[in-house]
């Protein structure tokens, strides 16, 4: 029964709020984890009370779950029980008056400008070797130039790059559209990729579907997958002499935003370019930039490096 209620909630999130596939998968995973926890205690989402939710959160904390993970799960429970209340399945919402777990503000992994340039140079060198390198160079240039999410890049339609005004029209989270910038280097990399793109199209019935995407693939999805994008970037990091654990498509998105803020871009503009619904999400990049500037001062300023005399 819990599973049916979860699926009804997910149907609502998809139909009424335009939740993405990845968001729906995350909700399902979190809610079924809670439902399983309740079932092992002889309870269910129909009769779970406030105390049980608090006990669940305490169990998560005891297991070592990060505060951000606990907060995400509680957010899912709030929306789920709010849905059950509005649908008349429950007479009250047990998540009311439950405080969110305290969570730190982890700073995102980023690349320095020097590391980013080394990555671009390595990708450009690979583009001179083979068509796979041409594709990879285009991917890196686009991620850094536009700040796209990995899912946005993987599913980007071919039509999105036909514009000549230097911007991409991107459909992001919740189906919201935004303009993402493309610098001359990225546009040049796209043109070069388009000259060899047809060689990556699958044959047979899937070809017509794959032709819609900028980065077609022979995979079942008919476009380059998120998993494959991660693999390609990890391999590129090794060749560029960068710790592969430090690099992912999202790290390039962070680099895009951080380097904009370091260059003097205002937060509202960066928020718009990233497609953040809340500027509070964007504000983390001011802290990243501040920390990097403080580290630079500490490492290079004569007074900062001066040793304190011994008494």
What does this structure look like?
Strands 1-2 form a two-stranded antiparallel ribbon. By secondary structure, the protein is mostly helical. The chain folds into two domains: 2-86, Orthogonal Bundle (DNA polymerase, domain 1); 113-297, hpI Integrase, Chain A, CATH 1.10.443.10. It has helices at 2-17, 21-39, 50-62, 67-86, 113-127, 131-146, 150-154, 184-194, 206-210, 226-239, 249-262, 267-274, 279-282, 284-300, 302-305, and strands at residues 167-171, 177-181. Helix 5 (113-127) runs antiparallel to helix 6 (131-146) and helix 6 (131-146) packs across helix 11 (249-262). It contains 15 helices and two strands. Helices cover 58% and strands 3% of the residues. Strand 1 and strand 2 (177-181) form a beta hairpin. The radius of gyration is 23 Å and the shape is globular.
Q: What's the short story on this structure?
A:
This protein is mainly alpha-helical. Helices cover 58% and strands 3% of the residues.
Approximately how much helix is present in the residues? 55-70%
* Mean pLDDT over the full residue set: 85
Q: Helical region count? A: 15
Number of strands: 2
Work out the radius of gyration: 23 Å
- CATH-defined superfamily of the largest domain: Intergrase catalytic core
Strand content: under 5%
Largest beta sheet: what is the strand line-up?
A: 1-2
List descriptors.
mainly alpha; hpI Integrase, Chain A; 2 domains; 311 residues; two-stranded antiparallel ribbon; single chain; 15 helices; DNA polymerase, domain 1
């Amino acid at each position: 029964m819990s599973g049916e209620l979860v699926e009804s909630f997910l149907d609502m999130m998809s139909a009424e709020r335009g939740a993405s596939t990845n968001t729906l998968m995350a909700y399902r995973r979190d809610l079924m984890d809670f439902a399983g926890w309740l079932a092992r205690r002889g309870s269910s989402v129909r009769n779970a009370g406030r105390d049980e939710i608090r006990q669940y959160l305490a169990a998560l904390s005891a297991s070592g779950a990060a505060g951000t993970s606990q907060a995400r799960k509680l957010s899912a429970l709030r929306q789920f029980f709010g849905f059950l209340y509005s649908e008349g399945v429950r007479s009250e919402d047990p998540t009311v008056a439950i405080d969110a777990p305290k969570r730190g503000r982890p700073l995102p992994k980023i690349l320095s400008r020097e590391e980013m340039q080394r990555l671009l140079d390595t990708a450009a060198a690979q583009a001179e070797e083979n068509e796979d390198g041409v594709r990879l160079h285009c991917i890196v240039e686009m991620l850094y130039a536009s700040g796209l999410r990995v899912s946005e890049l993987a599913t980007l339609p071919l039509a999105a790059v036909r514009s000549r005004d230097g911007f991409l029209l991107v459909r992001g989270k919740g189906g919201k559209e935004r303009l993402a910038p493309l610098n001359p280097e990225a546009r040049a990399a796209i043109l070069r990729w388009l000259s060899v793109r047809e060689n990556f199209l699958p044959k047979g019935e899937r070809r017509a579907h794959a032709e819609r995407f900028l980065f077609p693939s022979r995979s079942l999805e008919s476009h380059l997958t998120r998993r494959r994008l991660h693999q390609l970037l990890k391999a590129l990091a090794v060749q560029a002499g960068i710790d592969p654990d430090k690099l992912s498509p999202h790290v390039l998105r962070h680099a895009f935003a951080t380097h904009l803020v370091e260059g003097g871009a205002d937060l509202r503009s960066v928020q718009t370019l990233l497609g953040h619904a809340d500027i509070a999400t964007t504000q983390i990049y001011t802290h990243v930039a501040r920390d990097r500037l403080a580290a630079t001062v500490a490492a290079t300023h004569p007074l900062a490096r001066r040793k304190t005399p011994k008494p």
